[in-house]
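Quick note —
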Amino acid sequence: PWWVTGDCCGLVCAFVTGILHFFAYYVQMKYVIGPWFGVFSYAGIGYTCIMMLAVVSHSLCRFTNPGTVPLYLVAPKPLDQSVQREFVCKRSGVIKPPTSHWCSEAQRVVVKMDHYCPWVNNVVGMFTQKYFLLFLYYTFLCCLFSGFTLGARAFMCSRRSRHQIPFQGGASLCNPAPLDVILSVINFVEAVLFVLFTGCMGADQFEAISKNTPYIDRLQGKRGKARPLLENLRDVFGEPFSWKWFLPLPPPQQQRQQFNKMCYDTYDHLVKCAKAFQKEAEQAVEVDGEAIASNQQAQARRRRGGSATIAGPHSGYAYSKGYTYSNGAT
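Predicted structure written out below.
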């Protein structure tokens, strides 16, 4: 199973995230929703469903392979240096499809990598971005619900106390024990902090999706192809808009096929580049003024990096070994 274990901060943050969700659920059911509406009321069932969706989305985002390039897809050789920079990972040697980047925490190349998030202890990539968005969305709703119920409880009890209005609900709702007060205050602070945090993260994700440019690509000054927002969202969720967008379901077959196509199209492109590079290298007719075909020492100098005159179709495109072409370009 996929699990990033190399980041202690991520392990702690992901664990704490789950604990905070269950803490908020306990406080709401024990001291707010339970005494006020009842555990099996519409409010209780609704909050339970939202909380479970948030926790499941978080767990799947944490333990799902984000879209790592298989380790056996090693780039063919030889390749031009400019091609290597764009399509080959210099740390692992595997191919890099467009929008892919190396993640130092996961120690893998991830397709459509947006960023590494310690709160889910995983990379937000092609197969985890949907789960990440759902986690942010449902956590935002949970925090909004908790903050509203706690605020409404405080306002209602304060108003009834001032006007001496009898309260027909649970006796403990407006006569809280010290532990009730402490936990409710902690829950309220938690709700305020994380409604702001998830709201900001969600807005950042929305901006990245609307511009069709992952976060790392934006830092590098790259820009994706301009497309309608709905098309970009379909790309993230892997399928046209439907009720499935709102549930943490496995990546659809269409998205998996897109992933395979991106990887193997890149590999096929590199194979063609390697063959073209090798063919041009074999067409060299001279190294340091000596004929290659008739002088073995000259061939050895070419392999060590000497300059070579190439008679090929790509004259003017310089390779990293300092080859010179028949038109004199370097």
